[in-house]
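Reading group handout, session on sequence-to-structure problems. Before we discuss, look at one worked example. The prompt was deliberately terse, the way you'd type it at a terminal:

> structure LCP family protein

The input record follows.
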Amino acid sequence: MGHRRWKIGLAAIGAAAVVLAAAAGWAYRELDPARHFDRDDIAILSTGDWDSSAAPPDPLQDGGEPASDPSDQVLPSEDAGSIQSESSSQAFQVLLLGVDSREGRGGRTDVMIVAQVVPSKRKVNLLSIPRDTRVWIPEVGYTKINHAYVVGQSKSGQENGGIRESVDAVSRLLRLPIHYYALTDFSGFETLIDEIGGVTVEMEEDVYLHHAGGLVLPKGQSHIDGKLALSLVRERYSFAAGDFARQTQQTRVLKTVAKELLRPSHVPELAKLLIQSRKWVETNFTDKDLLSLALMFKGLEDSDIRTAQIPGRSAYTNDPLVGQSLYYWVADEQKLKALTAGLFGR
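And the output record:
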């Protein structure tokens, strides 16, 4: 009798193991990025298709008033036409937004990065958008792209108006559909960095951090907490290249955060951490989407991420929102078209 119970117990354990293995296999197939994001109900927040004749010609595209400081005439180092597309029909775009406030809803967008995710190749393409980039916004005119968030927030009765207006402005600028967004503020960014134990950054020179009380981040490697990481991604005055150097630091920190999240010590708690991140990051990704992205980024290498910045020039002209002359980054339309074609396959 005891021998029979022993055999029944073994059979039950075996059956349970088979069921668990099947469930694990099903879950993995469901979350595999190449499968998970290849579906008909994927979000589309803005198509990128619009009638450009709705906007009057921008006089700054024909020259306009140049910047008075030659040091502002900084161009990204990339040759826009040399970037070859690695995109696919499954690729989708995510707009990453950092708001310059600690309240989540106020302020302007201090950070704007478009991330194209290519699940079939497990690649990511990042395009930094200078916050001073000149764009056309309906009912406003030509203004800075980081004003889009403020304009959207001021529209009564429009839920998530700042996000919607920012998504539309970026989509129009790049002629690119935007499928997802992720937004955080200063406090959320600091908390996220602290939750993963900080990040290690490598500086090519000593950097004076204006937003950290003048603390100097030394040349070489440093392990920094959320407060210093925020100061670094906001810093531009200590770099000769100004805002373009700031954008470079932002993408470097972003890559470092992704690597840190996927360290072996973090993998067991990754699902919990991603779900907790909803306290600090507002997004239209579902929990399943986030878990699928975690699978995609597993084993992430620097070679899996390509970065670029918008080519153009500096200029000053009157802004319709503030009624005075402001600094702008004027995108070179032809070079930008070549860049998006190469980087995003558009």
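Points for discussion. First: Residues 14-27, 67-81 have pLDDT under 50 and may be disordered. Second: Residues 32-344 form a domain with the Aminopeptidase fold (CATH 3.40.630.190).
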